[in-house]
Amino acid sequence: MRITKEKKQENYDRIISTASELFRERGFDGVGVAELMERAGLTHGGFYNHFRSKEDLIAESTENGLNETLQRYAGYDVLAVMELYLAREHRDGRGQGCTAAALSCDAARQPEETKAVFAAGVDRLVRAIEDGIARHHVSDTGDRAQAITILAQAVGAIVLSRACPDDSPLADELLDACRADCRDAIENRARDNRAAV
């Protein structure tokens, strides 16, 4: 029995969404195709109607996850993004959280295609932060180096916090210190810009 284009797209979207969440929770190697398809409510054989291999799925779900991160924070001031990103709720919500924080180490061991997708997504995150800094400073341009530093610091804080036991004071201290430092860096740049005018 043939399925409609709409149903095929719906199944594809369900696989991508399920994979994106499961990969963020357990890593690329922590999820098999059979389990993924069962979780998506589809048959194992149906996987190959959409993807040539698990590596193709990894690349596509990675792009989806990085786009979700961009959409989640779109419209927020850059300082509000730092408050939301460097929060315990984000740290604890791995499956719904930032793909960069959940899968950077895994992506480093993937084929070049996945690395390229990951790099493009990280670049979009950097540009979004850069644009946010420019809007916060009411200027035409942001500071790419500062945006890269903020993203690296924020992702690193989430990764390190997740590596600590849940009840460890250090888990929260990492988030708190990074949040304060990112806020100060953005605010100090705004002050410097106002002083230069």
From TrEMBL:
One of its GO terms (molecular function) is DNA binding. Gene3D superfamilies: Homeodomain-like (1.10.10.60), Tetracycline Repressor, domain 2 (1.10.357.10). PROSITE patterns: HTH_TETR_2 (PS50977). Keywords: DNA-binding, Transcription, Transcription regulation. InterPro entries: Homeodomain-like_sf (IPR009057), HTH_TetR (IPR001647), Tet_transcr_reg_TetR-rel_C_sf (IPR036271), YxaF_TetR_C (IPR054156). Residues 32-51 bind DNA. The keyword Transcription applies. The keyword Ligase does not apply. This is TetR/AcrR family transcriptional repressor of nem operon. Residues 9-69 form the HTH tetR-type domain.
